[in-house]
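[INFO] parsing input record for NCK associated protein 1 like
[DEBUG] input buffer:
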Amino acid sequence: MSLTSAYQHKLAEKLTILNDRGQGVLIRMYNIKKTCSDPKSKPPFLLEKSMEPSLKYINKKFPNIDVRNSTQHLGPVHREKAEIIRFLTNYYQSFVDVMEFRDHVYELLNTIDACQCHFDINLNFDFTRSYLDLIVTYTSVILLLSRIEDRRILIGMYNCAHEMLHGHGDPSFARLGQMVLEYDHPLKKLTEEFGPHTKAVSGALLSLHFLFVRRNQGAEQWRSAQLLSLISNPPAMINPANSDTMACEYLSVEVMERWIIIGFLLCHGCLNSNSQCQKLWKLCLQGSLYITLIREDVLQVHKVTEDLFSSLKGYGKRVADIKESKEHVIANSGQFHCQRRQFLRMAVKELETVLADEPGLLGPKALFAFMALSFIRDEVTWLVRHTENVTKTKTPEDYADSSIAELLFLLEEIRSLVRRHIKVIQQYHLQYLARFDALVLSDIIQNLSVCPEEESIIMSSFVSTLSSLNLKQVDNGEKFEFSGLRLDWFRLQAYTSVAKAPLHLHENPDLAKVMNLIVFHSRMLDSVEKLLVETSDLSTFCFHLRIFEKMFAMALEEPTMLRYAIAFPLICAHFVHCTHEMCPEEYPHLKNHGLHHCNSFLEELAKQTSNCVLEICAEQRNLSEQLLPKHCATTISKAKNKKTVKQRQTPRKGEPERDKPGAESHRKNRSIVTKAIVWLAGYNATTQEIVRPSELLAGVKAYIGFIQSLAQFLGADASRVIRNALLQQTQPLDSCGEQTITTLYTNWYLESLLRQASSGTIIFSPAMQAFISLPREGEQNFSAEEFSDISEMRALAELLGPYGMKFLSENLMWHVTSQIVELKKLVVENMDILVQIRSNFSKPDLMASLLPQLTGAENVLKRMTIIGVILSFRAMAQEGLREVFSSHCPFLMGPIECLKEFVTPDTDIKVTLSIFELASAAGVGCDIDPALVAAIANLKADTSSPEEEYKVACLLLIFLAVSLPLLATDPSSFYSIEKDGYNNNIHCLTKAIIQVSAALFTLYNKNIETHLKEFLVVASVSLLQLGQETDKLKTRNRESISLLMRLMVEESSFLTLDMLESCFPYVLLRNAYREVSRAFHLNRVPASTH
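[DEBUG] output buffer:
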């Protein structure tokens, strides 16, 4: 087809007109369906008993109704023919509109096929969107037509009355009747009609693939990408938020789902022949159980698709795909969308706070506002349509959200911000258009290799229009109008997307990118309100009023959501956006709906407020009434009767015991405040979920801020309330005997984080100063680094305080001592062999026979590693406590640290431990851990003497030293430079050995340094003998294990590098570091290359 005919076909204009017309026809079909399904609004003669035989006859004979020879059946129709014509004219003409719309749609689709148009949502966005919208709108019209049960009766009765009145039937009736018959099974007929359009439709849909995948990411991916965050990259905060396809960024996912589901439903042939089409289709099937046709009318995606494909040959695999996708949706989509809503609550709250504080950012970051609105709207509409239609489910919680009010409120807040600062947006984008877009577009036009006259005229007009803009237009309040420019760009897309066009848009993507940018910028000047409607319209609630009211009721029941309940009456203003000029009779009805529910919500909010105020007033009245003189008589009488026992009277039955005035001021319990803090922790014993300490700290600070602000009005001693409540939370149980956050976090860190660290799914990384999760499926449901880095430890110390941290420490030490008890048992079992090893460790031949006789060596290493993990966590917690203590009490921290420095090896051990206990309470690290010494001392000693206990302690170090070479066989014993540790946590062995040795030999009053030197010598000999081992499996990670010796010295204040050099040559350590570094970088090369 020639370019001239492409101009003449006016594809852009026809798509624009037909899409608008299609929406009107669709709403009329919906209105007819709704009217005829309700007996109150149904045409009256359809309910008359005298008319029943006529209706049955018309329905049976349709469309071949012999009016002249059927007077017996059609008598009632003849009597009321004028009334029938008056009532049914609008209905009949609406059906004729469907037929005419159908004719125009197929004519346009055939023209587009003849032009061999190229569709790509990333380039010709308007052209592609309008094309897909037209297909979906047309399909929706036909499906809705087939759902009108009385369609045959309405059309047939009107034609009968018309023929009776005018002597001939309506001219459109024959074709209209045939069309109605054809679409009794609409999808079967539609798929036949759309077969020739498969190439164009599938091409347009495939262009969505990358965008659809990106927009269907989960909350974790959004969180990793820091979606919608303005503060994640402060230097780029004022940079303009641009994209090659601006309109795609806020394109509704629900709209894309409709395109894909309906598009592939009609053109299903490509699903068996094109793997890309199949991937996109399957991905879309995993998103929703229902998609919206119009308002509350939906398409049950999997059922409809399965029913159609089951009737077709060769579609067995596709039916299996549908069933698999349905199971995936039922199992996963509820939680998937729940997590996305949770993310959006936090992300959009942050966005709204930043924009409210710095509205100037609405200039460069306006796109973020519309993206946020679109994302919220998608999640809300998904929830609404599934809550409405999913009636039987094993997981009803997937389709209920008690916090939805907050999301609706944030949507309204963003809308309000955009409206309030419209001038900021206009000023920024006017300058952008005039000073940047116009220049870039001019350069691109000049660099085009081919530019026909028509296209040249259009593009030149773009440049001149943009160049003429100036800031005075905004200052003077001038009304902008760029709809002509956008329509010209739409035309240009159509001209440059036909097969024989001299200028192809897909060969000039830069032109498309800059024009898509210009279109968005122009909309920021003249149609911000339309864009707000496009991205955030929630008029769907007008047709899901039961769900809307239920959500409002949930907001009123949830105390934390009450502040957001005002969003519901605000959303009632959206209802007006769902009207169409082709169906004006709807407007009064929808207007009344909106006003009624707005008033209803406001009345309920006013009622709640009124009740609260009245309760306060009633309480004040009761307190005032207690002070009346008449009530003092009882008190005086009781006081008098106390003096004379004989005159004491028993109280009358039924007489209430009155409290004295002022009793209400006595604090009965603080469970309300303390329970609130525990509730903020969000602990779930079943799933072992808990809020991060930093998040809880932020919540507590907000809670305290509110109480303090409230105290200004109430005159209450808020500080005392807060201090007492927080102090209770530093104890294991509060005054009511309930668990506190101290207990909750102690249990959680022990049972969740440290237990998994002991099993190897979480490792301690000295480089990151945090525990980090290893990527293993099904092991843990949380990210360890989010709960254990420096900031979280600081927050934990802030929340638990010194008392709570001491409780945490005592629990940690209990676990340490339970491991020490088991270690001692292992030493006792191997006592004789260990004694011989201690005496003969330097004799290789004898050692070769003794070492295999040891039992439980791996168990010893494992238990000591567990102790090291626990002590490493405690050290991090202590460091957090030290920072908090230094911040709150710097004047105390200085003297404590100074006092600790005066401790020398010659200081009396009792004095040393007392000073260390004081320092430890402030979070200061000590050479000897007083908590560990106390915990080991409290162990119940058996019948063994102190000398035997001391011997066991010495042999424990020997056992550990000769067992170290066994670690080399473990594949996880490779030293990671990146983490500064090992994946099996054996680097924690060093802390365990040093601190346990210091505690044990302090307890037995022995020299710590001497015994650690002995350990160093025996360990060195054992590792040096490993170098003579010929079995490669046993020496797999020899170099990495050698580095433990250096780590041991670094960990201890009792050992030095000179001591290590005397028994383990430093050259071996240097070679080990070089070998580990080489192996580490070699392992990373394939990954980075891949």
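[INFO] Strands lie at 290-294, 297-300, 762-765, 770-773, 975-976, 981-982.
[INFO] shutting down worker
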